[in-house]
User: Which sequence fits this backbone?
């Protein structure tokens, strides 16, 4: 009995020890980032728990030297458009694939699914030339259209289709007898039913778009059109080793999302488990 | 009032049915609803993929017309020492990242599935990097790994060790990037494993307990076989993800020192968008495509053999 108890304490210590260590490794970089963002440039090499002097002016300097509000705005509105587009077109196609009978529907669905095996990186070059011919280089159009219609969008179709397959047939039969058009069945019955799937997809799509780096790097040249990740990466090249400025900029880019995450983390984590696990 | 609405709507429906028009039929709406995604598939995926095969057979540069040069780009590829280094780096990256990531994620999921106080905090902490953009995560770690200013070397200095120049040392740089990448996404795989662990039938544990199985035996004979499909899927995603690594390389090392951290996507990007050698870059991109296809097929066929409860 006594031995078992000792064993239990040992397991607990080991349990919390391992978890604390790994959590620390995850969190220390963020604390270090916040710490440095308030440091004086001459104190970068010195460890200070609370920076002295406490230079919140670093943030002002970043805001003054770069159009940070534009980066925010660009990232935000692109992410919102991509999310709305993905949800709408994904659920519309998902509904049709799950519930409507039309010739070749499984073939078309397989075609779409196969694209999930094609990495965007592989087809970027022809896409770039295609966008160039359309005069869309250095615009936000590729950053919005490619995720909605490309593999990320197809993923949305897949998630929504899986959800709609579970909806009992009786519901739409009743609506059909009432004379609802297919679009109304989709819009008034199916879409409201799909709230959990839509929530998951929203989180996933928004996050992916907000953090996207490769596509902005290729399509955007003008500073005022840049998104946050691209602006940060280029800011790194620009300011070199002015770490305090780099860290202030990183804090500003990260903190809003982390605040949202803290309020909605249950949905976030469950959403990722749901979409990634299927 | 409701009956009014119904009679109004039944009449036109009957009319349409009699005429059996395609417009307004179920098929029509089916095609209509999937058309944006199907057109997207053709424009954004299918034609570009076919086109990149054509491009890889040309000498297409930024200016001037493309000329058909047959397999010249592929011959150049085989004789390009940089390409082999890049390919080797990509494979080392995957070989390092995948086991670290999967094993730590599995271990964390097993630890965190128990309902002990403080679990929520640990889950959150481990998941935060997943939410963070790879650019921000890499910038922070570039700083953490800094030779003089970095946190790691400052800690090492405090205990009297002279830390190396992590990201500038040919032997260490790729390893550093692997660790940073593994930490970034370990939370994602952990969540997937946690979800799978919750699906395991509790009766199985009881049954095996009654049969005298200890915790270790339970893990090998109950837990692991039951979550194999998830482990498998996660493995595919992680391998494919590591083949496409780019952001952390771009931010942390720019492929350096020398070529020591240059990976396939970085090499494609460099050839296409820095050197504007579109034809050659397309050839490399197709190599990447074949590699990813290869891994997908291998893992799909392996799936049949050792996944436990797959239909």
Assistant:
């Amino acid at each position: 009995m006594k031995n078992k108890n000792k064993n239990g304490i040992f397991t607990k210590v080991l349990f919390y020890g391992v978890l604390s260590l790994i959590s620390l490794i995850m969190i220390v970089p963020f604390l270090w980032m916040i710490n440095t963002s308030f440091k004086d440039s001459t104190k970068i090499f010195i460890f200070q728990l609370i920076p002295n002097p406490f230079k919140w002016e670093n943030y002002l300097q970043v805001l003054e030297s770069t159009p940070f509000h534009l980066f925010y705005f660009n990232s935000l509105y692109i992410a919102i458009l991509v999310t709305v587009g993905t949800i709408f077109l994904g659920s519309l196609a998902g509904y049709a694939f799950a519930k409507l009978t039309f010739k070749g529907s499984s073939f078309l669905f397989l075609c779409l699914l196969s694209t999930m095996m094609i990495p965007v990186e592989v087809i970027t070059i022809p896409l770039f030339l295609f966008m160039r011919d359309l005069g869309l280089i250095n615009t936000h159009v590729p950053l919005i259209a490619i995720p909605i219609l490309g593999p990320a969008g197809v993923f949305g179709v897949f998630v929504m289709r899986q959800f709609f397959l579970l909806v009992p047939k009786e519901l739409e039969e009743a609506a059909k007898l009432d004379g609802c058009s297919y679009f109304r069945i989709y819009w008034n019955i199916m879409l409201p039913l799909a709230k959990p799937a839509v929530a998951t997809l929203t989180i996933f799509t928004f996050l992916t778009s907000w953090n996207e780096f490769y596509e902005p790097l290729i399509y955007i040249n003008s500073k005022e059109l840049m998104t946050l990740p691209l602006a940060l990466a280029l800011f790194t090249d620009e300011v070199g080793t002015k770490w305090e400025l780099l860290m202030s900029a990183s804090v500003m880019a990260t903190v809003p999302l982390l605040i949202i995450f803290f309020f909605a983390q249950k949905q976030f984590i469950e959403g990722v488990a749901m979409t990634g696990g299927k | 009032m409701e009956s009014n609405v119904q009679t109004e709507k039944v009449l036109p429906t009957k009319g349409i049915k009699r005429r059996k028009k395609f417009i307004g039929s179920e098929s029509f709406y089916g095609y209509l609803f999937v058309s944006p995604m199907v057109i997207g598939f053709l424009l954004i995926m299918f034609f570009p993929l076919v086109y990149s095969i054509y491009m890889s057979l040309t000498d297409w540069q930024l200016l001037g017309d493309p000329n058909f040069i047959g397999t010249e780009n592929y011959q150049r590829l085989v004789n390009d020492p940089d390409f082999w280094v890049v390919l080797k780096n990509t494979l080392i990256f995957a070989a390092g990242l995948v086991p670290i990531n999967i094993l730590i994620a599995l271990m964390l999921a097993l630890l965190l599935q128990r309902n002990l106080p403080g679990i929520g905090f640990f889950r959150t902490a481990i998941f935060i990097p997943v939410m963070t953009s790879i650019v921000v995560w890499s910038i922070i770690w570039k700083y953490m790994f800094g030779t003089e200013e970095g946190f790691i070397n400052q800690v090492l200095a405090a205990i009297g060790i002279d830390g190396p120049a992590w990201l500038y040392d040919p032997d260490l740089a790729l390893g550093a990037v692997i660790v940073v990448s593994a930490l970034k996404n370990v939370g994602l795989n952990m969540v997937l494993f946690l979800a799978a662990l919750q699906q395991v039938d509790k009766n199985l544990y009881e049954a095996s307990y009654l049969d005298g199985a200890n915790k270790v035996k339970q893990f090998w004979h109950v837990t692991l076989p039951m979550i194999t499909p998830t482990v498998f899927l996660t493995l595919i995603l992680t391998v494919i993800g590591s083949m496409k690594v780019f952001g952390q390389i771009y931010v942390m090392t720019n492929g350096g020192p020398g070529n020591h951290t240059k990976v396939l996507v970085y090499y494609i990007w460099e050839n296409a968008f820095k050197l504007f050698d579109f034809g050659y870059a397309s050839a490399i991109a197709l190599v990447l495509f074949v590699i990813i296809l290869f891994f997908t097929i291998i893992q799909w066929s392996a799936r049949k053999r050792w996944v436990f409860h797959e239909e």
Summary: Chain A has two domains: 2-58, 59-277.
